[in-house]
Design brief:
Blueprint (H helix, E strand, L loop, with lengths): L1 H17 L2 H4 L8 E2 L2 E2 L2 E2 L8 E4 L5 E5 L9 E6 L7 E4 L9 E7 L2 E4 L8 E9 L4 E12 L6 E11 L1 E2 L1
Parallel strand pairs: 4-13
Antiparallel strand pairs: 1-12, 2-3, 2-12, 4-5, 5-6, 6-8, 7-10, 8-9, 9-11, 10-11, 11-12
């Protein structure tokens, strides 16, 4: 009887230790995280002005706005026919009928991935939370300034961000 009581008490302690309030609490709110680097230099992103949007035809648009230009266009990346799955989505898949490219505007600078002869770019989605409408992953693209003597810019970053939709 003494052993049974000790076993019961040990089981109760084990149950209390595994049923912590953190497990019973509702999930914590996801915090927006967005990084941006241009030619390796960090640039602060504006998390309140930046938007990720999924249209009814499944075009995913990532619009990353610079903190020093919250009304500007910043970086826009389009992924046509986004399948709502994790994976890497590379740019310029024109032969497959997909439109994946990038554009960047800041002040008088306008640059496009299609303006570069060599324009590697991709978005890697590492996590999707469909219930809460969030994506996590990274992006990297090369864009070239339009016009004569345009500069080549490599833009990259990471995200954990909400996705808006219609």
């Amino acid at each position: 009887m003494k052993h049974a009581a000790l076993l019961w008490l040990a089981g109760l302690c084990l149950l209390a230790a595994t049923s912590t309030p953190a497990q019973l609490a509702p999930p914590q709110p996801l915090v927006r995280a967005l990084t941006l680097r241009i030619n390796g230099q960090p640039v602060k992103a504006d998390t309140s002005s930046s938007r990720f949007f999924l249209s009814p035809d499944r075009t995913l648009t990532l619009n990353v706005v610079r903190a020093d230009d919250p009304d500007g266009e910043g970086l826009t990346i389009l992924i046509d026919r986004f399948p709502l799955k994790t994976g890497t989505y590379s740019f310029q898949e024109i032969l497959s009928g997909r439109n994946r490219d990038a554009s960047y505007r800041f002040g008088t600078t306008a640059a496009y991935s299609k303006s570069c002869a060599d324009n590697p770019g991709s978005v890697t989605v590492t996590a999707i939370n469909g219930e809460r409408h969030w994506l996590a992953g990274s992006f990297r693209c090369t864009v070239c300034e339009s016009g004569r003597g345009g500069k080549r810019l490599t833009i990259e970053g990471t995200f954990r961000y909400p996705v808006e939709s219609n």
